TrEMBL record:
SHSP domain span: 59-173
Chain intervals for the UniProt region annotation (Disordered): 1-20
Domain of life: Bacteria
Family: Belongs to the small heat shock protein (HSP20) family.
Name of this chain's protein: Molecular chaperone Hsp20
Organism, scientific name: Bradyrhizobium centrolobii
Amino acid sequence: MATETKVPVTKPSRAPAVGSETWRPFQALRNEIDQIFDDFGSGFWNRPFRSLARLERDLSKSISGPAVDVAESDKAYEITAELPGLDEKNINITVANGALTIKGEKREETEEKKKDYYVSERRYGTFERYFTLPDSVNADKIEATFKNGVLMVTLPKTEEAQKPAKTINVRAA
């Protein structure tokens, strides 16, 4: 019959990642949300939204602009972006230091006057997208068109980049 041996199990102590506390990347967000729920019944609507405004500002920094599609053909790269409600005069495209920048601004103002009321609304928004250009792009021949809210930027390749790939045969030594 085998004898049972009991060995004490010890866990190695972990050193905290930052200072005396363990690093918790989502703790600040959780604290903000917990504070909002805690304050909900006690004058929530009458106090300034300092923490909520800060959270909104931080989230807006992560949004860089409209989604784009980038496609490659034998002769060019094409960037397509849907920009509904914009005019071509509100879009600015620049090429500098090996990068393409697409900027835009949307301004919308509505005003409604009736016998019993007056409503005036204004909405403003800007965006910016930045693309590093590969060396194979001929920056002098970049073209852009805008039709029905869709921006199409064509980045033609250099003649060297359009050449077909050369296959190298491997021979035994």
